[in-house]
Amino acid sequence: MLLVARSAWAGEIEVLYEGQWKALKTELHNGREYVALPEIAKVTGGEVLRDGLRVKGVTFRLVEDEAGVVVGETTFLLSAPPVKQRGTFWVPVEFVVRALEVRFGEGRVYWNKSARVVWIGKERYNLRLLRNHAYPDYTRIVIEALAPLNFRLQEDEKSRISLRIEGGILSPMLSEAIRINDGVVGMVEPTQGQGEAVFRIYRDAFGGMTRTFTLTNPDRIVVDLYRVKAGFGSPRAETVPSRSSARAPAAPPPAAPSEALRTIAIDPGHGGRDTGAVGPNGLYEKDVALDIALRLRRLIQERLGIRVVMTRTEDVFVPLEERTAIANRAKADFFVSVHVNAAPRSRAQGFETYFLSREPSDSAARSSAIRENLSVNLGGLKPREEDALRAILWDMANTLYLKESSELAQILLEELDKILKVDNRGVKSAPFFVLMGAAMPAVLLEVAFISNPEEEKRLQGGPYKERVAEALYTGVVRFKDRYERRLGLTPPPPAGRLVGAAER
Amino acid sequence: MIPNLDRRLLVGLVLLVVVGALGFLVGRAFSPGPPGPQDLPISGGHSGDAATRRVRLYFAVADADRLQEEHRTIPRAASLMEEAKRTVAELIKGPQGELYATIPTGVKLLQLYIDGRGTAYVDFSRDLQANHPGGTDGELLTIYSIVDTLSANFEEIQRVKILVEGSEILTLAGHIDTRRPFRPRYSFERVR
């Protein structure tokens, strides 16, 4: 038949470099995502050869159905073999990163898989990533470096220690705090200091032994933090903290993981090259959304003391899928996306709140959300069975979140209605891309119409935005109270646990 | 008037050529393969001999919370798809009365075809995204003015999938998921 597509369209990945960005189209072959060599040649300034690619004098040689790629004297392995289609080689997407590393140098190429963005930084980082794993007696934190680096471990306070790495430069993947909460370690917070990188490790309990050592190839710094236990014969700390004698002798056992609402994800809409709607006098939706979101964060942090995860805190472009992925990774309890509405040349004004509606035929969006966001370990299952099971889990989770999402939308609407003297346009539902992948109750707020000159004027000043943030804050408090009250009454675990528990 | 059988043949041929050419283009752009031309219905709404046809177009009301219809008269065409294209072309031109346009400026309809399962694929020029003023409601109005206009006038169309330059798009302006076809929805009613 004439119209059968030979391969499924998959999407694109973006390459950002020297202030410009290029999109590379990808295609699915045997369920994996591939990019064509000529596309890669465009972003690497390379030359396509009959049997591979040459970038800056380095040749990548490809053989069809052969996963090993010969580069000069060495070989690296692709996740799947290259395929030849329509006269060109197609290679798995990670090849793009390899080729860019040759062009720009390792340490300047950042590949954010879930955001589907590769960007080329000005500065070379040397601390690539952080992994953690909970063993029965201890939690291991591994920091992977590109070179051996000197470090020291110090105890800042009873429940916090700092790993200071001399000359360490954090990769942007390490820009956010990593929440562990396994009863030993609460959180690890990487920060970039002058001439050093610091990883602040917050323990879930006071004291407890630590052990550090290094591994090579690749260079790694390993920190083992032992569980606090009476009479526990842990190894001696190899790096003795300077104030170890001041350590509290007995520590309370770590509290059982609280069912309380602990983390909120706030998503300021749009950002960077995506301005969102633009008001008649030139005000950008992205700026208003960020301003209100930051105000809301401040109020929550100051008054409520729960953790706030932001999908962006400055004027940067964040792909839609990445926004819920950030919230999912942080195991946020709910997700609030802040937007400003627009309608062309109309007098529309006011606020409305939305939650996700999906049509049953929504399998494509659903399966991609499952792939990206549900990291359930379903060992022993065939990929197809695994997908089916994930789809069921995802559907169950979403049905459970739906009710909470609509309640959250209703509460936030009511609070906006109390404070704002403009049209209340109600709670609505629509198939929002940004809410699609959320493994938690999620809403999208349209707080005003930037396309209405009067509303735009109000949004230019701080007081109106502060009032909006106050209203949203009150709504968050109400939702939190309700959520926790309900937990106290009903024994089964809340919806948020279904996926949360399955995530690793 | 052309005898019935010949006309059906002609319609079939036109559809075959149009869909074939489009399918080739879309296939090249790696879009999901639309169902084949053998699935295509021959329009059931072509019994009258009149040279024109009255169609309903959906535009935004001032409050931007629902769509309202305006009427136009379009010349009859040899095929359902041709008439659907003419209807979308009228929608692009915008309202004549009190209502508000829903399609951004400069947008061109590139292609339109209908598969055997009642899904219309409507392919617009990139201006649909590039010139879109944004806003959730603005986006909903654009999407559903297209979807509702096609579904209300052509009973063969149950769902509408929006394409830009031959490819599937993720969203028009950052809000509504456009990876799947839409069913008609005439107002953005409050659910609570």
Low-confidence stretches of chain A: 1-7, 230-258, 359-379, 489-504
- Mass-distribution shape of chain B: globular
Shape of chain A: globular
The computed structural class of chain A is alpha+beta
Oligomer: heterodimer
The whole-angstrom Rg of chain A is 25 Å
- Count of discrete domains of chain B: 1
SS element count, helices of chain A: 10
> What's the story with the biggest beta sheet of chain B?
4 strands, mixed
Rg of chain B over CA atoms, rounded to whole Å, is 16 Å
Q: Helicity of chain B, in percent?
A: 25-40%
Give a written overview of the molecule:
The complex is a heterodimer of chains A (504) and B (192). Chain A has three domains: 8-120, Copper Amine Oxidase, Chain A, domain 1 (2-Layer Sandwich), CATH 3.30.457.10; 127-246, Sandwich (Immunoglobulin-like), CATH 2.60.40; 263-502, Aminopeptidase, CATH 3.40.630. Chain A is built from ten helices and 27 strands. Chain A has helices at 37-44, 94-104, 285-304, 320-329, 363-373, 383-419, 433-436, 453-460, 462-489, 495-502, and strands at residues 8-17, 20-29, 32-36, 47-49, 52-55, 58-63, 66-71, 74-77, 83-85, 88-92, 109-112, 117-120, 127-134, 138-145, 151-157, 160-166, 178-179, 185-193, 196-203, 210-215, 220-226, 263-268, 307-310, 334-341, 351-356, 424-430, 442-449. Chain A starts with 7 loop residues before the first strand and ends with a helix. Chain B starts with a helix and ends in a 24-residue tail after the last strand. With 192 residues, chain B is an alpha+beta fold. Helices cover 32% and strands 20% of the residues of chain B. In chain B, a hairpin with a 6-residue loop joins strand 1 (52-60) and strand 2 (67-75). A four-stranded mixed β-sheet of chain B has the order 3-4-5-6, sandwiched between helices. Chain B has one domain (4-168). Chains A and B meet through strand 1, strand 24, helix 6, strand 26 and helix 7 of A and helix 1, helix 4 and strand 6 of B.
